[in-house]
Amino acid sequence: MTDIAERNAAPTAHCTIVGIDVEGFGRHQRNNTNRVRIRNGLYNAVEHAFDTAGVPWDSCRHENLGDGVLVLTPSEVSKPLLADEFPEKLAEELRAHNASHPREEKMRLRLAIHAGEVSYDEHGFTGASIIHTFRLLDSAAVKRALAATDTAPLAIICSAWFFEEVVRHSEKSSSTAYRRTKVTNKETTTHAWIRIMQPPDR
């Protein structure tokens, strides 16, 4: 029995975990052509934001989620880049996309950031840290925060660990712009930190 368990054990690695979801992707006002253009815009925005933030997209593992994307950055990538540079760059990419597309193809995103151990196998990756990231991403707290404004292109929710260990210690992360919130989603009850990325003139 031990030999079978050892053969089936998946390798693990510590990663920064980024989950991204398009607000209202399935809303009735959008048709399938709109959704294809949104997905193309999403990938362009995310890839460019990673690259310009100093996190090479080609170094990351990623998985398409239909209306979003899961990205794992390797352990050697400096975590402050995800707190300092990436949100700003992604917001810039979203503003550029929205300025050049009709209302049905404009997009606003929810972004969840966490870090932890991830297990890999031939089918992809899994782990408690990924589940936790998606509980944050799909939480009512961050959905309400984004819905409360019609101007912000991006809402960020950081896990308590990522905020306390990374965001709070960085002078470039605008940590005072985050607010602490309680998250209850399925089996997860925790605290997290939310920031709304407003346009530059706000």
How does the SSE layout of this entry go?
Blueprint: H1 2-8, E1 12-22, H2 32-52, E2 61-64, E3 68-73, H3 79-84, H4 86-99, E4 109-121, E5 124-126, H5 128-137, H6 140-147, E6 154-159, H7 160-165, E7 179-185, E8 188-197
Helix pairs in contact: 2-4
What report would you give on this structure?
- The protein has 202 residues and is of the alpha+beta class.
- It is built from 7 helices and 8 strands.
- The chain has helices at residues 2-8, 32-52, 79-84, 86-99, 128-137, 140-147, 160-165, and strands spanning 12-22, 61-64, 68-73, 109-121, 124-126, 154-159, 179-185, 188-197.
- Strands 1, 2, 3, 4, 5, 6, 7 and 8 form an 8-stranded mixed β-sheet that branches.
In brief:
By secondary structure, the chain is an alpha+beta fold.
Sheet with most strands = 8 strands, mixed
Shape: globular
Q: Can you give the mean pLDDT?
A: 91
**Number of helices, where a helix is a run of at least 4 consecutive DSSP H or I residues:** 7
Assess the beta-strand content as a share of residues. 25-35%
The strand count comes to 8
Order of helices and strands: HEHEEHHEEHHEHEE
Identify the quaternary structure here.
single chain
Taking pLDDT < 50 over at least 5 consecutive residues as the criterion, the unreliable ranges are none
Distance between the termini: 61 Å
Rg is 17 Å
Structural class: alpha+beta
List key phrases describing it.
7 helices, 8 strands, alpha+beta, eight-stranded mixed beta sheet, globular, 202 residues
